[in-house]
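Lecture notes, unit on protein representations.

Consider one protein chain, 213 amino acids long.
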Amino acid sequence: MVAATKWSKLAKQYPELHAIPRRLVHETKRLCLQRQDTLFRVNERPANIFFILSGEVQLVRYSQPGSEVVLQRKSSGFIAESSLNSLSYHCDALATADSDLLAFPLVHFRTALARPQFRDYWIDLLAGEVRRLRAQSERLLLNSTAERILHYLASEGAGGSIILAQSRKAWAAELGISHESLYRTLARLRKAGCIVIDENRLTLVKNTPPPGS
């Protein structure tokens, strides 16, 4: 259980937690994962809704040939929100860094949704996640690496600019490409004047990928 004084500090740091009803707070537990720990596995029955305070957790699914597809990557906020009404998980959740999380028991979380204010908050949150997943699906349908990079900057960035909070290799996995292809294409896009790269900040200059991308 998270103490009231500790929760007050968390709510100041994470605005999303302001909407959590007090009764649900009393049932919330703190969870610490080490890098490469498993939060849950595919086909397991959900028991909690998780909120990431720090670190990073990835939702991963594996294709028939065994390649890894990153469905969701979070370093803060709720993750695997759709598990609220699922009988089993449809992917694995893996910590890619030492991570600190909150675990809200599903039975109490569902009860809390009877409160209109919390229910409206949760609906808005899910709507935002649907928009994010729609953009990701559109991106994975694009054929070239350049198109996926430019789409990511346009859809995920603020004014076409993002600061990568992950390694280039992890970003390549999210884009569904090899990290070698990512490095080569970033170099071409920068040389063609399509993007500006300043350490971990990438800024979109124009939407036309260079020839041969």
